[in-house]
Predict the 3D structure of the following.
Amino acid sequence: MRLFIAVNFPADFRDQLYREAEPVRQAAQYIRARWLPAEQLHVTVAFLGEQPEGRIADIERSLESVGQSMPAFDIELHGVGTFPNWQRPRVLWIGSSESTELQTLAAAVAQACRKLGIEIEKRPFHAHVTLARLDTGVPRAAIKTLEEAARTLTFRARARVMSIDLMRSSLGNNGSVHERVQQVLLNETGL
């Protein structure tokens, strides 16, 4: 199974993010891109890749331990950017304000996964919500239009992170389909 760990948001919050990004989608109408539907907007905390089904129970137990040790917290999402950069955009995203809590959560999840022998990316964690994956070869004029539209977005959206989810990603004819395998509540009391 292809697995990842995510912070998911309530439906109304995902819908708000999707609506706020409409000017960017309009600016990108002539760019070949795979846009994520509102129901798939999330922050990936860790990508686990292909994992045997027999390992899921161990992953679930490790995530439960992380959840018990981490308090719930707020994050703020704002701004649109690209990976790796605006000169060669491949992923279009909404960013997150610097969040010590989210960084701590990502580090705890990575450590728990490594203890299970799951290799986690070594790149620094950069919290973001992927909006679209762009095809290569986008003309410079189209990138400039997209970047200008992204700079006009001034929204800020705040969300309470109360859980992390173990997710399965299955490739289908219309792109990836995400399914929650396990939801782990964070410690709401902070104890």
Remarks:
- The mean pLDDT is 93.
